[in-house]
Amino acid sequence: KKLLTVTILLSALLALSHAVCYRKPMTPSMEGMTHCQDDVDKTWHPVGSKWRNSQCDDCDCGGCCSTVATPVEFPAECVSVFNQEKCKYDVHRRDDPSVTCPIFASVLINMK
Fold first, then answer.
1. Which family does the record assign (predicted)?
2. Residue-by-residue DSSP string for 79-112
C-alpha cells in the first residue's frame, strides 16, 4: 500500500514538473535588441530578465511557460477557485470554503 502511494505521489510530481511552454521565433530584426515585450501584459522587460505575467506565466524574451495546474478531478461536493494572487487553484467544499478538498488529477493548459 505504501509503495502505491509513493508511486502515485511521484507520478504527480513528475507531471507538474513539465510545464506547457511556447517559444517566440527569433528574427534578424531582433538582433541587438535590449528589451522585449510581454505578449499578454504589453510590458517591456530587459533582455535576459525573467518575469511572471498576469496570466501567471513565467516568461523571458524567448517565450513563456504556464505555471498553473488546473484541477480536473476532485470530490463532487467541492469547487475549484482560481487564486490570482497565488497563481494557483484552491479546491474547497462548496458549502464551507474553510475546508480544503483533495485534488486527484490536474492538467497544465496553454492559454495561448
1. Belongs to the beta-microseminoprotein family.
2. EEEEETTTTEEEEEETTEEEEE----EEEE----
Q: What angle do CA 43, 16, 21 make, to 5 degrees?
A: 40
Residue 27 lies in a domain: yes
Nearest residue to 60 via CA among 48, 78, 71: 48
pTM beyond 0.90: no
Confirm whether 13 is domain-assigned.
no
Q: How many CA atoms lie within 13 A of 44 on its CB side?
A: 3
pLDDT digits (tens, 9 = 90+) for 60-109: 999 999 989 999 999 999 999 999 999 999 999 999 999 999 999 999 87
Q: Which residue shows C-alpha cell 464551507?
A: 96
Residues 14-59 have pLDDT tens digits of: 444 456 898 888 777 777 899 999 999 999 999 999 999 999 999 9
Residue-range definition of the domain harbouring residue 94: 68-112
